[in-house]
Amino acid sequence: MKRLLASGTPLLLILFCAFGFVFAPNDPFHVDMANRFLSPCRQYPFGTDQMGRCILSRLLEGGKTTIGIVLLGSAVVFALGMLLGVPAGRIRSGRILVESVLNAVTALPPIAYLIVFIGAWGNGVFTMIFAVTISLLLRLIKLVKAETEIELTKAYALCAVASGASSFRLL
Predict the structure, then answer these.
(1) Stretch 100-107: mean pLDDT, rounded?
(2) Is the pLDDT of residue 171 over 80?
(3) 1 CB burial (10 A radius; 0-12, 13-18, 19+)
């Protein structure tokens, strides 16, 4: 039961946000000044805001945007992390330099990247996505690099090299 709740609840929340427009009782952008600050009722399940907009509909619309940003950012981080991390783990010369740079940049918390990029580019959704993506990307590159180095020292990889496997085939 715990496993079902642990995996089912986030999945249900993601699906609800992604397809929330189906469940939204009202237009999230419709302004109705006559219905400002209404408490929850049948027409407005979470009430209305200062502009008379349905809060539930606006939450669902924001959830859809957030899910899209998270999925896109995760796909970019995964793809670039694998493409850059595997060759970084394969490098023999310059390994200390690559490792030192990755250790230095991953020592900073993600919020530090956010502060630096907001200071440079201003506050905005793109700036926040870029800062968090860069921070997570560097961490994933470091992880993939370390795992690649570990796998290349195992017996099956060494046997493959001894039998003439190319570097590309090993990766």
Answers:
(1) 90
(2) no
(3) exposed
Secondary structure (H, E, C), the chain: CHHHHHHHHHHHHHHHHHCHHHHCCCCCCCCCHHHCCCCCCCCCCCCECCCCCEHHHHHHHHHHHHHHHHHHHHHHHHHHHHHHHHHHHHCCCCHHHHHHHHHHHHCCCHHHHHHHHHHHHCCCHHHHHHHHHHHHHHHHHHHHHHHHHHHHCCHHHHHHHHCCCCHHHHC
Residues in Cβ contact with 117 at an 8 Å cutoff, skipping those fewer than 6 apart:
127, 128, 130, 131, 134
pLDDT digits (tens, 9 = 90+) for 29-79: 999 999 999 999 999 999 999 999 999 999 988 888 888 888 888 999 999
Give the span between the Cα atoms of 147 and 118, in whole angstroms. 33
Residue 167: pLDDT above 80? no
Of 136, 152, 132, 131, residue with least CA distance to 88: 152
**CA–CA gap between residue 93 and residue 5 (Å, rounded):** 48
